Amino acid sequence: MWKIFTPDTLREQKNILLIRDWFRRHAMSLLVPGTLAAVLVFALRLSTPLARLMTDGAEYLNLANLGLVPQAHLGAPFVYRFAVPLFVHVLGLVTGAPPVSVFPVVAFAACIVLLTGAYRVALIVDPSPANALVVMLLLACSLFVVRFPLYCPYDVDVEACIVSFAAFACILRRAYPAALAVSLVGLIFKEFLLAPLAVLTGMFVLHSIRERSAREFRWALLTFGLTFCFFFLPRLLIPVSGGYGTSLHYKVDAPSRTLYLSELRMFLAWPPNPDILINVVLSLVSFWLPGLMLLTPGRIRALRADPGFEWITVILWTATVLLLMSIGGTKVMVFAIYTAPVLVLIVSLLLRMNVHAAEVSAVVIGTAVFNRIMFSFGSAGGDPGTDIAFYGAYRGLTEVTAWRFAEVIGWVLVAWVVRRLSRQSHPALIP
């Protein structure tokens, strides 16, 4: 029997072939980085046990076990970050596994997705796959990007960071409506997704002033209004039985929808004291060590002149994260990872400035040693607070604070020496 091809069937077959080619092309482009990401995460998993359950993780696990019901004695602000716990809850129902066993699997997969996502964002900035792999490796060597989520898998930061990378990628591609949608959804992952929303609002306002565009101004109002609604509605609709501050647990007898907002001043560490501000600075320079090692006055000038340098995005995103770090809890070192998309942008721009391989190697080694990534970490059922004490910036100031600042300076000097030696053989490098 002869098959009759009509224009419609030919068009359908052409569309199927296009979709198949697109899938093959993108799947192959992710094969190498995805495999490397899986290998890196698996290697860290082998040397990283599970810590004992702490306050944050206990609240998320409680939410994953019982869901959004008043009988769960929900605690704020953890309950407002219900995306990951409810996802774990659904997976538990589907698989029959208890949420306490599902969380580590989700964290493991999320670490792989996060590293792969960082690779894709790096490619948007710099089309060099080799440089993008270096960026991915640098993130994998950072303690709180992969290793700490594997150690404390009941927190939600690694999953929220994935959403922040998705929003950042949309901003870089000028897909602002998509960035807005992703960021609004991200608010039920963690409050740090206010960063891309601040960027979008600032961009729309600036464009409306520059272009005298009423359309851009309407987008700014829409972004601000939706941010306000998506941020406050969960805090007005979900009843909680208690709230947590920096060093405070406040409980009430009956679930309340007004507890957290009415007592917000009590829960936030504002105005921040000098100890908190110093820890915020230490957390940021520690996490940004790869960028600090690569930066030079000449490269800073080149960055400012680079059309790929999104200065509005960098400033507003970083400022928002720093503000939230200063008024949040004690784990400011963990919160610093929400600047990871900006770090990927800047490191990617720096790496495409013909940086010598010796300098790149020094940056990778410095990041790995600073984060003690080559050593085993923690102990089964251990206390995360004790195990991360070497990193500094946790709770108050200690003698570790000065040593860690000194180590950052030391690695920056190492990079300077390597750069000077490399420039002798390659004088064309940007000084």
Unreliable spans: none
Based on secondary structure, the structural category is mainly alpha
**Strand and helix order:** HHEHHHHHHHHEEHHHHHHHHHHH
How much is the radius of gyration in Å? 23 Å
The main sheet comes to: 3 strands, mixed
Number of strands: 3
Number of helical segments?
21
Mean of pLDDT? 89
Strand content: under 5%
Gross geometry: globular
Helical coverage, percent range? 55-70%
Strand order of the largest sheet: 1-2-3
Distance between the termini: 73 Å
- Described by its quaternary structure, the protein is single chain
Task: Annotate the secondary structure layout.
Elements (H helix, E strand, L loop, with lengths): L6 H40 L8 H12 L8 E2 L6 H13 L3 H27 L3 H12 L2 H9 L5 H16 L3 H11 L7 H18 L2 H24 L2 E5 L4 E8 L2 H4 L1 H4 L6 H14 L1 H6 L2 H9 L5 H17 L4 H4 L4 H12 L5 H14 L13 H4 L11 H27 L6
Parallel strand pairs: 1-2
Antiparallel strand pairs: 2-3
Helix pairs in contact: 1-4, 1-5, 2-3, 3-4, 4-5, 4-6, 4-7, 4-18, 5-18, 7-8, 8-9, 9-10, 9-16, 13-21, 19-21
Model description:
This protein has 431 residues and is mostly helical. The chain has helices spanning 7-46, 55-66, 83-95, 99-125, 129-140, 143-151, 157-172, 176-186, 194-211, 214-237, 259-262, 264-267, 274-287, 289-294, 297-305, 311-327, 332-335, 340-351, 357-370, 384-387, 399-425, and strands at residues 75-76, 240-244, 249-256. It is built from 21 helices and three strands. A hairpin with a 4-residue loop joins strand 2 and strand 3. Helix 7 packs antiparallel against helix 8 (176-186). The protein is globular.
